Amino acid sequence: MKTYKPGEYWEQRLSQDFDLSGVGHKGLSLDYNIQLYNRRLEVLKSRLSQAKIDISQSRVLEIGCGNGFYTQFFTQHQVREYVGIDITSVSIDNLQQQFPDHRFVCADISELDVSHLEGKFDIVFAADVMFHIVDDEKFKAVIRNVACVLRSGGLLIISDILPQETTQTALHVRLRSKSEYSRLFQENGLTIRYIEPIFVIAHPSPTYGHHLLWNVITIFWKSLLRVKFKRWLIVDSMICRLLLWLDRKFLCPKYGQKTPNSKYIFAYKQ
Ligand SMILES: C[S@@+](CC[C@H](N)C(=O)[O-])C[C@H]1O[C@@H](n2cnc3c(N)ncnc32)[C@H](O)[C@@H]1O
């Protein structure tokens, strides 16, 4: 029987492609993934600015820093200190070379002894990482670790899908519901303040939902991925632009909270 070994899985993916297709969606082209990452950044910046959160001068811990997309973001915002953790040596070695002033740690966040991180953080950030912690006990350990390293009043930002019920959609993907997050957060002194939708249809829908229309969208995405549409180059890029426009203008504001697709969750430590 096949099992998911996170270290091996990510070492292999990131060694093959140390770019946004290595960390992004495998079924999409590099150009499509780049456009999705730009949208992620746009939503993150907009929520930070609306909530008047100034991240400069913060001590930041990023979990699952991957190819450094967000390392770049935090560096540009002149955070006081940045520590990146990833389970792969390919990520840590490359990023340590690119960003010699930051600290990078190669570790599995569910097994890390957090006292090695020396002190508390103002911000803990984990984008598209939590749903790759498929083991429930390890997931609880990660939330405990995160709560433990955040200072009182500190901010946790994660991105996840939040379907109505917790579901495993692949060997390496387990999507937790909002109620599961809320329960674990509460047990660890964390309170959700904002949930900011990133995609409704521009990112392949990861799971079926409770509405017929959503299930039609999921079937549409499954069909596109099955015909390997990432090889259609210009068409793939045009589809991406159109879907992103729909998300930005109409779908995220109207349906983003309810549909099971990417969102940023902002939670504070009490
Ligand atoms: C989908 S990628 C996202 C990377 C980056 N956060 C981004 O949004 O571009 C998941 C990342 O988490 C890392 N990762 C997965 N499981 C991990 C674990 N248990 N501990 C630390 N890092 C992990 C992987 O190596 C990979 O770099």
Automatic annotation (TrEMBL):
Residue ranges annotated for the Methyltransferase domain, each copy included: 60-154
Alphabetized GO MF terms: methyltransferase activity
Alphabetized UniProt keyword annotations: Methyltransferase, Transferase
Origin superkingdom: Bacteria
Signal peptide segment: none
CDD domains (UniProt xref): AdoMet_MTases
Annotated InterPro entries: Methyltransf_25 (IPR041698), SAM-dependent_MTases_sf (IPR029063)
One BP term from GO: methylation
Pfam families in the record: Methyltransf_25
Protein's name according to its UniProt entry: Methyltransferase type 11
Organism: Chloroflexus aurantiacus (strain ATCC 29366 / DSM 635 / J-10-fl)
